[in-house]
Amino acid sequence: MIREHALLPVQPGHEEAFEAAFAQARSIIAGMPGFLRLSLSRGLERSSTYLLLVEWERLEDHTEGFRGSPEYQRWRELLHHFYDPFPVVEHYTEVLSACTQPRERGKQHFLYLAPEPHQHDPLRSGGQVTCAEAPANRPA
Fold this sequence. Notes:
By secondary structure, the chain is α+β, with helices and mostly antiparallel strands. The chain folds into 2 domains: about 90 residues, 2-Layer Sandwich (Alpha-Beta Plaits), CATH 3.30.70; about 40 residues, no CATH class. It is about 25% helix and about 25% strand. It is built from 3 helices and 6 strands; from the N terminus they run E-H-E-E-H-H-E-E-E. The chain is globular, with a radius of gyration of 19 Å.
């Protein structure tokens, strides 16, 4: 899984129009091969800046598939005129992550951080985070 990261500097005063355009554009990207999910967040300190995170199966799904598609032209028409300056887009691969899980009364939970596959622990999976109830044979 690849995570695309872009800080989107929207021209001040155009935030509402940008969010409406992005709501339309969302279906374009969501229909692309290799697309997994996206989130768009608005800055608290700089309310005209948005953080776009998109998860792709492979880097090429974004850089070649999406950007090389006819659908990308529509994406550009909807969104690119809002940016000043044009955003820098970078790609990342996950190294480590964490999650929380509510504790149930009388049960203990472990958080497994697994940057690599582990064969000896069925609760660990290659590069994924698993929040799971503690196995009965594992000390808390």
